Each structure stands twice: as C-alpha cells, then as structure tokens.
Amino acid sequence: MTEIDRATPDPDRIEDIWGARTPYGAGEVWPGRVDTFLPDGTTAADVDRWVPSACLLCSNGCGLDIAVRDGAMVGVRGRAEDRVNHGRLGPKGLFGWQGQLRDRLTEPLIRRNGRLQPASWEEAMTLITDRSRQLLEEKGPLSHGFYTSGQLMLEEYYTLAVIGKAGLGTPHMDGNTRLCTATAAAALKETFGADGQPGSYTDLDSCDAVFHFGHNVAETQTVLWARMLDRLAGPNPPAHVTVDPRRTAVARASTVHLPVRPGTNLALVNGLLREVISRGWIDHDYLDAHTVGFDELARTVEAYTPQHVADLCDVTVRDLQAAAEIFGTHERVVSTVLQGFYQAHQATAASVAVNNLHLVRGMLGRPGAGILQMNGQPTAQNNRECGADGDLPGFRNWNNPQHVQQLADLWDVDDSVIPHWAEPTHAMQIFRYVEQGSIGFLWVAGTNPAVSMPDLARIRRILAQDSVFLVVTDAYRTETTEFADVVLPAALWGEKTGTYTNVDRTVHLSEQAVAPPGQARSDLDIWVEYARRMGFRNRSGQPLPTWDTAEGAFDGWRDCSRGRPCDYSAMTYDQLRGRGIQWPCNDEHPDGTERIYTDHQFHTFDDDCETYGHDLATGAAVTPVEHRAVRYDGRARLKAAAWTPPPENPDGSYPLHLNTGRTVYQFHTRTKTGRAPELAAAAPDAWVELAPEDAAEHHIADGDLVRVESVRGHVEVPARCTGTKPGSVFLPFHYGTLDPSPSNGADAKDDVAEDSADPSTSERPHAANELTMTAWDPVSKQPTFKSGAVRITRVDQSPTRTREED
Amino acid sequence: MHLATYLGLLETGCSTLATSYRQVADGHRDEPDVATLCLRFAAECDQQKARMSPFVRTYGTHPDGEPERLHADGLAEARTGGLGLLRDLHDLYLLATNLDISWTMVGQAAKGDRNTDLDATVTRSAATTEAQLKWLTTRMKAAAPQALLVAD
Ligand code: SF4
C-alpha cells in the first residue's frame, strides 16, 4: 500500500456534488451517466481487473466496479447497468475507498500493563475465549453483550445471530443501526406487521410528488438526489415538499418547505392527516378493505387543526395547507423519511403517521406511489433481517412460539436456548447493563461508540470500567479501541466477500477484490473462529454455525429466509454476480420483486407478523391475545398517537434547540472518509450552523470559534451563519477526538499504524455527542440525538473562514 | 350509599400512585425511559384525579368513614440497582392494579346509577391506567432476567 497524493478530483464530485443533469420525464427511464475515479494518473488500460461490487457508504448502495492493479485497489467506476445508480457515484462512493489504504490495523493488540501492544491471533483469541468461558460458567449467557455495526455484510450478521442466539443464548445483541435505522424498521413493523420497504427507487421515475420528512437527501444519498434533480429538470417535474428545520438544498428546491420546530414532527404530520381527512382526500373503499383503525386515527388527529399545528410547529397555516393539498390531490406520491424524524422526539409515532398518510389515500403498491423509510447504509437492512440487532432472523416474532420453533428446527437446537422471553436488549440498555456491571463481556465490532453514541462523557466512563472485558474488532485505531482489552484487526469492503441490501431491497454481491492488509481477517472468519474455540454445537453434535465461508452463510440464510417476507430462497451468488436483485426472490419470483404490497395484503396475520405491535406513546407491547382479538388478517394497522412535549426544552440557561446530522463528505466517525484526501480536505473539521439572527445576537460572525454547551458537555467549533431555523443550532456528528485526516502528519507517514503509538488527538472538543442526551424513542429505542437544549458563546474571533458546502 | 367511599379511594389512589411515580422517576434518573414515562404517568394520575372532582362534589368522599385497610401505601423511597428498579416497578404495578380495579367497581356503580358522565369519565381513566400497567409489564418482563440472574 502506498500513500495517495491528493488528486484533482475527476469527475469533481466535491464542488459539483450531484454532477451534470440528465433530465427525464415521468415514466421514462433515468438516463445513465458513468462516474469513474482513477487517481495518480492511472488509466483504464492500467487496470488488471474490475471487480463488481456496490458502494456501502449510504443506503443507496450504488453499483460499482472496483479497479484492481497488482493486487491493490486503484479506483472505482459506477455500473451503468445497475438499477440503483445507472452509473453515477457521489463524493463518498468515488473517493471514500482510498481511506482503506492507510493507517490500517494489521495485527491483534492486547492490553499489557495498561497499553495496547501487538499480539498473535492465538494469544488474542485465547484471552477472549478464556474470559468468555469463565463468565459463562460464573454468570451465564446474560453476562455477554455484542454491540456491532450497520456496516458489516449479511453473511456476518447472520453468522453472529446464530452464534448469539443458538450458541450463547444472549438477548444482548444490537448494532449501531439502533442509532440510525431502528425507527424505519419499527415504523414499518407497526403499520404493515413486518419490516420491508414497500416502495422502489423506480417510483421516483413516475411519481408526481415527493415528500421529504426530515430527510436531507441531497447530502445523505447524493445519487438519489441526482435522480430527483433530473426529474425536476425534465418535463412534468414532481412537486417537492420538505419538512426540515434547516433550509437544505432539498428545501430550496421544494414547492413547500415546512421549517418545523424541533420536537414537533408528530404534531405536524397529525395536522397533515387531519387536513387530508377533513378535506375529503381519502379513499374510503381502500380504508374499508385494507386497513383497521381509521375511526380511532381520525379521533386522535381531530385536535390538530391548522392553526393549532401552526402554533405548535412554528409553521404557517398557509404552508401547512398547501403541503396537505399536494399530498391530498396528487396521484402518485412518494414519501421519504430519515433522521429528522428517526432521531427526534416521538420518532416511531411520527414515522408511522407518514405511513398513515399513504394508507388513507391508498397511496402504495403501484408505480409512483411509495414509502421509503430510509436507512443509513445498504448494510443496515441486513442487520435487521438477520437478527444481529437482536430481532429473530427472517423477520420472525419473538413472541410467537412457532417462529421460535422454526429457528430451533433450522439450527437443530432446543428452543429454550433461543432468547425469546422479551424483546431483545437495545444498544442503550446494553450499555446500561455494562455500566451496572451485569454485562462483563462486551464485543464491539465495526463501530465507534466513543464518538457515535449520545452523552460521550458517560460512554467513555462505561467503556473504561474494570468490570467489563472489552473486545473491539475494527480496521483502524479509533476512540473506542483505546478502551479495549483486545483489539482484532478487521478486513474491510473489497477485502472480503459478502452481500448487502439497500433501502429498496436491492441485494448486491461484493466479491473479494484484494487481500486484507497484514493479518486482518473478516468479521465472519473471526466469529467462526470464536465459535469453534468455544465449542458451540447443535443437537446432532455438528459445529455451530455449520458453515465457515461467506457463501455457506448465504446459503444458510436462504434457508432461514424461505417463506418469510424477506425471502432470498431463490437467490444465489451466481445470479447476483454483476447485478442487483430485489427481495423477495423465491420460486414464484425468481427475478426478484420490484414492489411489495401490490395486492395490499400486509403481514398482519397473527401467525405471520413480525410483531404484534406496541403502544406508540409508551412502547408497551401488544399481547398475542389482544392482537388476535382485532383480527387484522392482512389489513394494515392504522395507529395514532397524540403529540407530547419533548423531555428537554430550551430555557433561560440553555435557550437553543440542538440538532445534529451528517455532512455530504463524511461517513460515520470518519475512520474511512477522514483518510480519503478529497473528502478530508472538503470537510476537515466540525462546525456549528447558526441562524443569522442568533449569530448576530451573540456577536458571532462566520468563522468565529464558538463554544456550544449543554448540561452534559461542550464543544468548540467554528461558526457558519446559515439558513437554519432561528432558535436552533446544527452540528455534524462525525468528528471525534482522533484526527484521521491525511494532513495529520503523525500517522500519515506510515501506511500501517504503529501499534504501540497512540493515535494523535485534536486539541478542541468537537464531537457533537458531547452534548446529546441519553434518551430514546419508546418503540424503536432509537436515541433522540436531535433534541436537547444548548447555549452558545463566542470564544475567539477567528480569521479562519470555513468553506461553504453548497 | 358507599359509592362515596370508593370515590375517596380513587382520589387517594391517584394521589398515591402519582407520588410513587415521581419518586421512581427521581430515584432512577439513570434509566431515562423509566424516568420520562413515570413523570408522564404521574401527570396522568393528576389529571385522573382532577376529572373526578365534580363527582366527588356530587357524591362526597366520606374520608372519615373509610376503613383504613382500603388504602394502599405508596413507595417509601426508591431503591437502587437492577433489582431495586424491578422491585420499584413491581410496587408501582401493584398500586396501579389497585387503582385499575377501583375504576372497574366505580364504573359498575355508575352504570347502576345511570350516571353516564361518571361512567364515561371512569372508562377514560381506566384506559389510561391500563396503558400504564401494560408498560410496567413490558418493562419488568425485559428487566427481570438480568436483575434476577446476573445483577450483583
Ligand atoms: S450515493 Fe451513497 S451509495 Fe451512492 S456513491 Fe454516494 S455514498 Fe455511495
């Protein structure tokens, strides 16, 4: 591996994020445009092989080929024929892979005398299994927790799910998907009975209106926004409506922008529902045939009159009514929902309310009419499907003994081994058990909670506790590995084989293109090794899991998913080579399924549903008896809740709302993108966005260093005075205490981190999660990052001016 | 006429439960879901009690004539740790159950007395208490194995 010089981006997806327009009209095929990036003067002629894959840096999962020369990754090229991106790649897809070429962990580390030091795999695995065995004997499986990632592959999640559920038998298993996509899953489960995206990206080719509920698609899924921009540039462009406190690029392109007051999303959608109902824009026949609960829904939203909602949400009656009219009168409406809703107060209730809007109009299951409860990454969906987030694999219901028995039969274990006495333990609760000392063995894989979880001072305290034995699998030294007892070096994308599924159910196969650096191994190999050393076996005495390869895991998963909503049974690696296939893919639909629920038959039968549902206000579980009594029998559940004020509101001491989120140039905690020269240069440091009014009140100008403070902690970052809603501030969440950027000389001179050298840290605190609070949605258990109160003060009148993104 | 006695029981039951919810919220601030919901439930208990006052004015409450044992004691103070949380939720459950069955009995009397206003008020309050009980059940079921098997 060699250090890559900063190349002139070609094509320039840094300045020109979405690329040139290729306009098209309703019902036409989105024209192709292939984006390629080969730095260092490499040309296509120099490339030995192009290995088909897909980007995994956002939930689009754009199809691409990895360029390989002399056994190394040297570039990427969008796949023109891929149904997701038609050849395009955004900034992260084009440039992000370069971050894999430096600073990698290449051998295991174990803590000796308080410091992480190089060790052999044998030493590291022995240490892990000794401690694991000892705790199992002393305290049983509930002493073990796994906090993993939304960035692994299907085969890895399913392997871990089998180890955790059939080998160990612990319910303490979750992924960082809890932080980003848990509400998407919860909302789909509550309404339709099971997870699974009703819509398809092709709905955007024919829709006549698009609603963005807390979804800044221009930054989070740039290629999806390019598709929308191309419709906007073509004949008969669809109307766009945006609900977002920030005046984002999406908001600026919208017919109506509702800059909602933070914490009031549910009131807003209840107001839209009331307006759609009271203006008579509902489909009574559809409601009668395919839904249950309309009367209760109508009663609940009755109080949300336009004036009341305008007051609560700080929007105008006119805009609210205009938005409702667009929803109520267009024929093909697509809604997309993301973190503005998922990481906010009453997340599941508000996202379910979006499903309700579609159901009252019968607005799904046909071209152009769809719901996209978005994800963070194309690998997050697999965590939900395979059960590494704690759910039972294959969208099975923990509260349904038959579903548990199916798994017990499949894995050939006793059903009592599989934890199914309650819902799985969510990430925040896993950390609470670690804090209380009842989880003594925590395995963190492919994620960096010391930057990404709320209230970092608390998370650091927990990770530092002596009572927990912390194993961390990662590709780099991170803020989290610094607390570990054992660090295992992991292979990354392109260095291993596996599949993943994007937000519209498209499965891509990504085959190994290059060898992992040094002794790094795939998470699948690592977990299989752990299982073998622990001696997990099924009733017939075979080792558990029964496979030790990615394709073996995939075949195991095909069996597990057979007959379930996420059916992969007819999908093989062979079929997936070079193309994406949408599940369900079974004997009936051997080529996959573009759109589900075309028959408007939902997964709400008692014996089929993934959950019997919850009280949206409290999260209390609906019992099987209660569910049976309603007789949903395939009809969608219309569930409603009243708005309640958020737990922490701005006051005299902390007068501003806190909002956190992504920037287009970075991914997660920057471990990868922070090491890609173009991306690191484009967004090198955190910042705080202030409304010009608030900035003026505090005598803050662009570039001034500002202290942002909550009761939990503070950051010091430069100001950007922009179009965020007055009374609220925005911070990007990617920035931790370590600085991975290529300009950071301490690490940049080595391609592989010196294992004994501690990574360099930045001087000023700039992690947004120093400020956020430990709180979560009652149903999805997703932390409410976008809430809480802060105050700002100018620290320094700095000459530094940060670059403007847009 | 002993309905008044039961109205008094309901009033005290709402107050006792509200106080206990607040105690648990305060004592378990490190369990944010518990703290947030218990505070909300406490406010619901206050509202339930307020909604009863017109009926108390009509029927009276006869506080002096009530047998002592009718009233359940609230929580003395919040406990700590995983098991402490479970025990506190368990106590809340018992208090809420007591209130729940009291709504049922007053509802029956309301029907017998053809007092549709009281009946509707009680039905609404009973639904609130039932929702609280369901949450308590869900939370305790999730917490019990860890508290009883692994916690120190
Ligand atoms: S849009 Fe998402 S999946 Fe596509 S290239 Fe960009 S980051 Fe990758």
Automatic annotation (TrEMBL), chain A:
A GO MF term: oxidoreductase activity
Keyword entries, A-Z: 4Fe-4S, Iron, Iron-sulfur, Metal-binding, Molybdenum, Nitrate assimilation
Spans annotated as Disordered: 741-806
Domain 4Fe-4S Mo/W bis-MGD-type: 48-104
UniProt cross-references to Pfam families, sorted A to Z: Molybdop_Fe4S4, Molybdopterin, Molydop_binding
CDD domains linked: MopB_CT_Nitrate-R-NapA-like, MopB_Nitrate-R-NapA-like
Co-factor(s): [4Fe-4S] cluster; Mo-bis(molybdopterin guanine dinucleotide)
Gene Ontology BP term (one): nitrate assimilation
Superkingdom to which the source organism belongs: Bacteria
Family indicated by similarity: Belongs to the prokaryotic molybdopterin-containing oxidoreductase family. NasA/NapA/NarB subfamily.
Full protein name: Nitrate reductase
Biological source species: Nocardioides panacis
Automatic annotation (TrEMBL), chain B:
Source species, domain of life: Bacteria
Protein name: Uncharacterized protein
